[in-house]
Amino acid sequence: MTKLLLETLKGNPGDRVPFWFMRQAGRYLPEYLEVRATTNSFMEFCYSPDKAAEVTLQPIRRYGMDGAILFADILVAPDGLGQKVWFEKGHGPKLEPVNDEASYAKLSMGAFHDRVGNVYETVRRLKAELPAEVTLLGFAGAPWTVATYMIAGQGSKDHAAARQLGYGNPELFGKIMDMLVDATSEYLIAQIDAGADAVQIFDSWSAAIPETMFERWVIEPTKEIVSRIRAKHAETPIIGFPRLAGAALPTFVDAVGIDCVGLDTGVPLDWAAREIQPKVCVQGNMDPHLVVSGGDLMVSEANRILEQLRGGAHIFNLGHGFVPETPPENVALLSDTIKAFRR
Ligand code: CP3
């Protein structure tokens, strides 16, 4: 049984455009909320292989996506390094900040795989349970995006704490980034060992970074992770997603050596088709908020995306994840629209 999404990632697109959606498992689905309600702590939920595998499979059963993304979170990596991570209702993630030598000294790779090992177990269960034609996607956050949370101790606007540490104490910042390169490479390699067919690296906050720092904070660490994965698993496709990188996107694609790049909602598609798609597969870029209103505009926009990217390898996805208020029936209509299209 061939996996259409995996083949497309390898640069062999078929007649139909494969699809999956960021945050396809999540709060917009009543069956997710039901399982989620059985565990108070979100991190504990991520470390429960039965529950994490179940919520990964829920959207596949409903909508028949070509890809299933492992259910976990990008903040599993700092938790594995020994940083305290927790989620507060209505506040998002909280972490004990790592912003000086003393807090950095508490982190290490020593217990990493033991701490996050249940995520690998989730991958093994998914590998066994998923239909043969569905591609299993592992993922991690990119060092820059994960560092913005680690340093600020929470989500932040403009990522002031990480930027200021990066400029003001490049030595400490560099040590944090190096540790994240080690952790992320090993974490993704272990997910592939456990059965992931491909992996995505989320750099959600790579917007508005000066180009010298974009090179140092976004391109170099991601490139190093890609090269370490390739050394062990040369055949496994890697998707990069430097969200909101704008005109730096082609530079990122050329430098990092990924197989596919995620396009956020603002990327003009004629430009992407011309400048990026000849080099790598592209994925994206539907506005998740358009799936909240749905209807004819959602269908015509989906068809426009499919048309504009029909000339090369394309995986239909969103420009960012589904929001909780997304009506599940709109996801059904969007899925049917994508399935009906032929290149
Ligand atoms: O379906 C999937 O996409 C797979 C699972 C997944 C989650 N988070 C589950 C989740 C993935 C791939 C992520 C990635 C992630 N996590 C990113 C990168 C992608 C992006 O959205 O930019 C980031 C920045 C995070 C960090 C994070 N996790 C935040 C800021 C929050 C709180 C905000 C929110 O939406 O609640 C989370 C929590 C989280 N991660 C939830 C889910 C389903 C909601 C928590 C809950 O169910 O109580």
UniProtKB/TrEMBL annotation:
Taxonomic source organism: Kordiimonas lacus
Listed Pfam families: URO-D
Family, per entry: Belongs to the uroporphyrinogen decarboxylase family.
Annotated protein name in UniProt: Uroporphyrinogen decarboxylase
Catalytic activity: uroporphyrinogen III + 4 H(+) = coproporphyrinogen III + 4 CO2
Residue span, Uroporphyrinogen decarboxylase (URO-D) domain: 137-153
The keyword Kinase is annotated on this UniProt entry: no
Sites marked Transition state stabilizer: D73
Major location category of this protein: cytoplasm
An MF annotation (GO) of this entry: uroporphyrinogen decarboxylase activity
Gene3D superfamilies noted in UniProt: 3.20.20.210
BP GO annotations: protoporphyrinogen IX biosynthetic process from glutamate
Gene name of the encoded protein: hemE
Top-level EC class: lyase
Highest rank taxon of the organism: Bacteria
Subunit composition and interactions: Homodimer.
Positions that bind substrate: R23, Q24, A25, G26, R27, D73, Y149, S204, H320
